Amino acid sequence: MLNLACTLFRMTVAEALLGVTRHAAAALGLDDRGRLAPGLRCDLALFGISRPAELCYWIGGNPCLARVVEGR
Q1: Model's pTM, two decimal places?
Q2: Are 34 and 24 in contact (CB under 8 A)?
Q3: I need a labelling partner for 29 at 20 to 30 A (CA). Which of 4, 19, 20, 40 fits?
């Protein structure tokens, strides 16, 4: 989705990342997700990349190193 957003719809990397995190959670009515802040559910993925734009390049690859779900 990130690759399509950036190449097909010419979104910036920041816009695409917001689209798959904060805005996606808001669209689903999940107000406790999509961003990191005190009191919110902590779900995140840790990636082995040097720049956020690298997430938009990978198709079929998975640079995810670890996941945190509900703070664990």
Answers
A1: 0.81
A2: yes
A3: 4
User: Residue 24 is encoded by which pair of tokens?
Assistant: 């996606």
Give the integer Cα–Cα distance in Å for 40 and 27: 17
Distances (CA, A) of 39 to 3, 21, 66: 31, 17, 22
**pLDDT tens digit at each of 72 positions of the chain:** 999 999 999 999 999 999 999 999 999 999 888 888 898 898 899 999 999 999 988 777 789 999 999 888
Token pair in block for residue 72: 């664990």
Q: Where are the domains of the chain?
A: 2-68
